[in-house]
Design the sequence.
């Protein structure tokens, strides 16, 4: 008998109600007093629960060890510099700031739960304020601890997904869903960075575990667990609130079961109270500094929804971009299998479709309507999609082998390879790439050897500000303590009359850098003795992806290309074709053409003006 047959026979036994109750109120009291089992596990698992349990735990332990290994492999990439702009400017610096002030983050563009966790980890690992001194002397060590924290939370989420899948369906589905998320490219790659995208998967999936128990048992403790996970998830990443949809669906199933209305209403109240309480515990200044919290939330929403300023977008449909992102961030087979899982569950048990299907669909519609989009923003729905994909594989394997049960293990193995193969290949490739030296580090090493201390240089915003300073005691030769004197690329350098003048214009952020470039800047560099220009393809690529929006930047790069190339470091392997600019693949190095992390870095030496004599 297939899993679907068992599912139809065992799902929602309580929905049939007690047999011939003497009085409706007596039946309601009986249901209220006993442990309400709304959904049973598959019969094949129940009958064998006493045997072979150790095999499941052994398989799960091996899976978790492999997941952690993938997440730690190459985790030092780029250090001691954090080249990801969000990693460099958000969670780690704000966590360190708590050592010098109160616990109000004064910043809510991202919720602070992960920041508070990092503060606690730093306090234990470095011994309190010593973390600040360590960061000043060796920032790479602090970023490494933060990254390992994210990787461990990502591995913990793998275990929680096994629990959620096992309780919703069966252990095979749980183990296969966990295997998929353990090797899928996006969760593996972003476990290498101290961002909240992977850490949020732990509380989010914890809420799914609680939701599965609500569907199965419907006890107050189950609602409490789901609510706590929901609240902490929202305090880690706002979009994790999508996990509310499965919880409401599970509560609706209990509400519609005979005698379950009172239990469901009470459970929803418990979940709501737990979610609010846990959110405020993890984000206390949402009330303590409500105006700043409200402003940060509004700013985050406006930034995500604003297409203006995002120069270099390669697609103009958020929905199409996210559907495409599924095909590589999770994989082609998993994406298609998840759709098949929805169809199979629609035929087998529609109440589970109501629990699992709406969240990914609603999330795609909402995120696809925004003006900015990145593949990693999909990850809050990955656990649900993994469960759907795993169910499809297990169900198809069962149906194929229904007349030949001995084929079932082989079919499941084939299905598992098909489901996880793409993610495993690209995650292994990612580990190899990240374990090699970053092109920006190679470029800096070359400059240390060839560009004298105190030289004037131009560096595009492909590196953090600290890149021009030595780690540890700064150079005493330059007036500002940096190794080289850096041109103010953060300014337009255009005065009120429209003439180019050093440091004359307004401040420019990284989004607008290409918008203020013009060919006359090269002459400005030469007149003022800025003879070394460091350019990165992740900046020039934005202009090349949208030449009509920044025609002067295109001319600028053409003029710069006529200068002498003193050094170049490429991330691509020998004979590989360069990857066109993309806001995902240019930063997560997914294509197999990558050999090492980083953009194409080029150091030009100018020969005009003052530079003719250098």
Sequence:
């Amino acid at each position: 008998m297939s899993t679907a047959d068992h599912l139809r026979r065992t799902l929602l036994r309580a929905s049939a109600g007690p047999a011939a109750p003497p009085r409706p109120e007596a039946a309601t009291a009986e249901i209220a007093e006993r442990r309400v089992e709304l959904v049973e596990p598959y019969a094949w698992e129940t009958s064998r629960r006493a045997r072979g349990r150790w095999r499941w735990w052994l398989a799960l332990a091996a899976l978790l060890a492999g997941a952690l290994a993938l997440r730690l492999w190459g985790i030092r990439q780029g250090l001691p510099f954090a080249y990801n702009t969000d990693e460099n400017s958000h969670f780690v610096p704000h966590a360190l700031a708590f050592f010098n002030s109160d616990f109000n983050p004064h910043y809510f563009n991202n919720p602070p739960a992960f920041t508070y966790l990092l503060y606690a980890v730093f306090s234990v690992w470095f011994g309190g304020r010593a973390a600040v001194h360590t960061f000043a002397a060796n920032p790479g060590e602090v970023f490494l601890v933060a990254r390992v924290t994210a990787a461990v939370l990502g591995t913990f989420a793998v275990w929680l997904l096994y629990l959620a899948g096992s309780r919703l369906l069966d252990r095979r589905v749980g183990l296969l869903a966990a295997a998929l998320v353990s090797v899928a490219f996006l969760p593996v790659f972003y476990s290498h960075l101290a961002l909240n995208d992977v850490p949020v998967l732990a509380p989010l999936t914890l809420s799914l575990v609680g939701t599965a128990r609500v569907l199965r048992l419907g006890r107050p403790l189950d609602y409490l667990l789901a609510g706590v996970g929901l609240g902490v998830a929202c305090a880690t990443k706002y979009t994790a609130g999508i996990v509310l949809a499965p919880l409401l669906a599970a509560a609706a199933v209990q509400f519609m079961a005979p005698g379950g209305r009172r239990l469901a209403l009470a459970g929803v109240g418990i979940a709501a109270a737990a979610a609010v309480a846990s959110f405020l515990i993890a984000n206390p200044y949402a009330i303590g500094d409500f105006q700043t919290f409200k402003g940060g939330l509004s700013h985050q929403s406006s930034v995500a929804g604003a297409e203006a300023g995002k120069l270099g977008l390669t697609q103009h449909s958020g929905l199409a971009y996210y559907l495409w992102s599924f095909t590589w961030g999770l994989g082609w087979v998993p994406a298609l299998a998840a759709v098949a899982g929805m169809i199979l569950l629609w035929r087998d048990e529609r109440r589970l479709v109501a629990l699992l299907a709406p969240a990914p669909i609603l999330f795609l519609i909402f995120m696809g309507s925004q003006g900015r989009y990145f593949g990693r923003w999909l990850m809050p729905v990955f656990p649900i999609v993994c469960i759907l994909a795993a169910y499809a594989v297990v169900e198809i394997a069962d149906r194929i082998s229904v007349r030949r049960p001995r084929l079932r293990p082989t079919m499941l193995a084939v299905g598992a390879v098909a489901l996880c193969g793409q993610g495993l290949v690209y995650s292994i490739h990612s580990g190899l790439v990240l374990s090699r030296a970053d092109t920006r580090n190679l470029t800096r090493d070359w400059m240390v050897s060839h560009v004298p201390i105190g030289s004037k240089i131009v560096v595009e915003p492909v590196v953090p500000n600290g890149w021009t300073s030595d780690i540890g005691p700064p150079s005493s030769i330059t007036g500002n303590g940096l190794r080289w004197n850096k041109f103010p690329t953060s300014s337009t350098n255009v005065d009120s009359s429209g003439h180019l003048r050093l440091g004359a214009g307004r401040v420019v952020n990284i989004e607008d850098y290409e918008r203020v470039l013009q060919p006359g800047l090269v002459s400005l560099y030469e007149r003022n003795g800025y003879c070394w220009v460091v350019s990165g393809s992740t900046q020039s690529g934005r202009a090349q992806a949208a030449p009509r929006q920044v025609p002067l930047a295109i001319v600028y790069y053409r003029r710069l290309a006529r200068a002498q190339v003193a050094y170049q470091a490429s991330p691509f392997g020998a004979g590989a074709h360069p990857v066109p600019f993309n806001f995902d693949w240019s930063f997560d190095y997914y294509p197999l053409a990558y050999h090492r992390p980083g953009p194409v870095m080029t150091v030009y030496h100018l020969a005009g003006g003052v530079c003719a004599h250098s």
